[in-house]
Amino acid sequence: MKEKELRRSLAVLPIGTVMKLTDLTARQIRYYEEQGLIIPERNEGNRRMYSLNNIDKLLEVKDYLAEGINMAGIKQIYAERAQEEAKRQAKREKSLTDADVRRILRDEFVAVSGLSKQNQFSFRNNGL
DNA sequence: CTTCTCACA
DNA sequence: TGTGAGTA
Fold first, then answer.
1. A65 strand C contact, CB < 7 Å
2. Which residues in chain A come in under a pLDDT of 50?
3. Could you name the CATH architecture of A3-69?
């Protein structure tokens, strides 16, 4: 499920192909890049190379534009989308630290009680 | 031939 | 956003 996403991110399409796939002019495609909506890579000859994800985003932008949304509006939509992703990322990190909290708490207890891990083991064997 | 940047009779 | 100029 991750190998697939990697392929979709591979920039292998020249602008000419993108034009046919999206029905957008080169001018528009470059303009949307200028607006930060997409960030195509560049090959050795400074030629823009697009990925399938870039195509999807361009088509998405095209739809928003068709719905009457302007550049500013589209930028806001992606800005909000980025913030929500940031929150999800923060939550994952928080849940991961929660797991670590137990380890930290346990180590703290061991230190305060003065019990080594080996002693804890022997205590258990003695039913304590 | 395709794409790039820059500019606007 | 279109388009032509001059390149790479």
1. yes
2. 123, 127-128
3. Orthogonal Bundle (1.10)
